[in-house]
Design brief:
207 residues; mainly alpha; two-stranded antiparallel sheet; 8 helices
Length: 207
């Protein structure tokens, strides 16, 4: 599948998503199929021959485990991210954390590191910190949308600063994993992957 086709698929999926969320009669349906949407756009992102190898699979498992493990601690102990809870909208879960969240951590880590390595190809640590900042900014875009549509909720409806500090810290950890295990910047659609989602979140946040 060519990069152009994959980019077109991403745009179509997010345009359809915006329309679906904007129509009250379909809003509940689109909330419930959010996990399917995340799986499809992640497959589109990862459709690269260059990453079909054992090291990428190992990165996928470790990154998912780190992100998912942090979320389990966050949901159950509240000392990472803050006091928050997931709803049932994101489907099956373990210890209060939907399984799909592991995939979200992997795809976000992958896309942000692809972009940061393209911007800073010869500066290892700057690239890692830039990726962690991108990941934190991406979460900043997600939060209002997720709360508005009931994907998760925060105590007293307030998103604490701890959430963003935690995203940055964990972002550094998983970005280190990316640099050690994948270290690739050849995926030409990573920026479109993030751009489509950011536009999606911003539009729906303000409607």
């Amino acid at each position: 599948m060519s990069a152009t086709i994959r980019i077109v698929i991403l745009f179509i999926l997010h345009i359809v998503g915006i329309i679906g969320f904007c129509l009250p009669q379909y809003q509940a349906l689109f909330v419930n199929i959010t996990p399917i949407h995340l799986i499809i756009i992640s497959i589109v992102l990862f459709w690269e021959k260059s990453i079909l190898n054992v090291m990428f699979l190992a990165f996928f498992i470790l990154c998912s485990a780190v992100g998912f493990g942090a979320e389990v601690l966050g949901v159950n102990k509240h000392f990472i991210f803050g006091n928050y809870h997931y709803s049932s909208a994101l489907s099956y879960s373990f210890m209060g954390v939907p399984y799909i969240i592991g995939l979200l951590w992997v795809s976000t880590t992958y896309a942000c590191n692809q972009i940061s390595m393209g911007l800073f190809p010869h500066t290892h640590w700057i690239s890692i910190f830039a990726a962690a900042l991108l990941m934190t900014g991406f979460d900043f875009m997600i939060e209002p949308f997720a709360v508005k549509y009931g994907l998760w909720s925060w105590q007293n409806g307030i998103i604490p600063d701890l959430n963003y500090y935690s995203w940055f810290g964990i972002g550094i950890v998983v970005s280190l994993l990316y640099h050690k295990m994948v270290n690739d910047k050849s995926n030409s659609i990573s920026s479109y992957f993030l751009l489509c989602q950011i536009v999606f979140f911003l539009v729906l946040k303000n409607i």
